[in-house]
Design a protein that fits this description.
24 helices; 403 residues; mainly alpha
């Protein structure tokens, strides 16, 4: 699609793509990819140069320049991976001290790469610190360490929404059926960012028991939450979700509407086709593009089946609207419309005649003229109107008079 991107702009869309896509590895991958620690430096390797490098890296963490601090964190990570417990034990000793300093922040960043299991018990007490930025840094590091899920479930009750959102990522990365209850609670959080990542997590984990909650989330006041709920429901392709998706369309906008349409793309029911036709005239260009892409994706044959089912259940006005949209958006080529003039279904032929008339090209003249001589009274009348439009050279918005 212009893939709704996990990526369309809203007033409340401050979550990054990495956040919305929940691009964190599973717990198995997280722990399996952790660097292997060297138990200690080689006895033949002098310790003094290593400790000097450690001091230099720690000094960089005190710099007011962000780039210097980043270099210090990277150097600590390299030292920890290369020298194992020699460096890790010293860094853990610094972490155990108070008050919080730039050294603590840099060490936590480095531990995201080094991932020493023994750091868990040292970091967990930071979750009780009064400063929210300290608690947030602790949760973000624990995400990459073998901490129990219960640690993050407790953090999901934090007063700071950023910590609750980060905790949802952590619970999601652990996965399993035990994640259902805490994620369901997060789906009712007071902050839309937390609700959005919870909906995304439920879809990623494939917890089908959450489908009723996700259908309810399609009516959320936040368009971002609606978008993530539609994305999650799309993962299951369950026809039971069709009604909720259709009901959510009128009040949805932008990315939310785009994702709902995408979730409905495989459904050929008349109600879905009518919704797609309506979306082709949406004010948002990305929504119009998604609707026209879905209608044209299956080719002329697929569109013909959709329209035949729609016309059998709709009045003539909707056939005119469908013809106008197909002509103005260029969903079907003129050659394919000419083929539809010979369709066995009179409703489809009527549609093709109207679309060619709206297309307003002299190349359609011969087809319409033939229809006036060989068709039923209804189709003949539509063909006559098309010929009159061509004679007046009334342009069809979205397509020129010649192509």
């Amino acid at each position: 699609m212009p893939t709704p991107s996990e990526h369309p702009a809203h007033l409340d869309q401050t979550t990054t793509k990495a956040d919305t896509d929940m691009a964190s590895p599973s717990s198995a991958k997280e722990m399996g990819n952790a660097p292997e620690h060297v138990a200690a430096s080689s006895p033949d390797e002098p310790l003094e140069p290593v400790l000097k490098d450690l001091d230099a890296a720690l000094k960089l963490l005190n710099s007011p320049v962000q780039l210097h601090r980043f270099l210090g964190e990277s150097h600590l990570a390299r030292l920890g991976s290369a020298h194992g417990s020699v460096i890790v034990s010293r860094l853990l000793g610094i972490l155990a001290t108070r008050p919080w300093t730039p050294h603590h922040a840099g060490i936590l960043e480095a531990f995201k790469q080094v991932r020493p299991p023994e750091a868990v018990s040292v970091i967990i007490p930071f979750l009780d610190e009064p400063a929210p930025d300290v608690r947030l840094a602790a949760v973000r590091t624990l995400r990459w360490l073998p901490a129990e899920m219960g640690v993050f479930v407790r953090a999901m009750g934090d007063a700071d929404w950023r910590i609750r959102r980060e905790s949802v990522f952590c619970v999601s990365s652990r996965g399993g059926p035990q994640a259902l209850l805490p994620l369901a609670r997060a789906l009712r959080d007071e902050h839309f960012q937390v609700r959005a990542v919870a909906a995304n997590a439920l879809g990623r984990l494939g917890l089908s028991e959450a489908a009723p909650m996700l259908r309810a989330a399609l009516r959320d006041e936040s368009q971002r939450v609606r978008a993530m709920a539609a994305w999650a429901l799309d993962r299951w392709r369950d026809p039971v979700n069709t009604g909720a998706l259709l009901n959510a369309l009128p009040e949805s906008q932008g990315e939310a509407k785009q994702r709902i349409l995408h979730a409905l793309r495989a459904n050929g029911s008349p109600l879905v086709t009518a919704a797609l036709m309506e979306a082709c005239e949406d004010p948002a260009p990305e929504v119009r593009a998604e609707a026209t892409r879905i209608l044209g994706h299956a080719g002329p044959g697929g569109l013909r089946q959709r329209l035949a089912a729609l016309f059998a259940a709709a009045d003539k006005g909707l056939r005119h609207k469908a013809a106008w949209i197909v002509a103005s958006q260029g969903i079907v080529s003129r050659d394919d419309l000419s083929v539809l003039l010979r369709d066995a279904d009179e409703n489809v032929r009527y549609f093709a005649v109207c679309a060619l008339g709206y297309d307003n090209l002299n190349t359609a003249h011969s087809h319409l003229l033939q229809a006036t001589a060989s068709e039923s009274r209804t189709v003949c009348k539509a063909a006559t109107h098309g010929l009159k439009r061509i004679a007046r050279k009334t342009p069809c918005p979205g397509r020129g008079a010649c192509r």
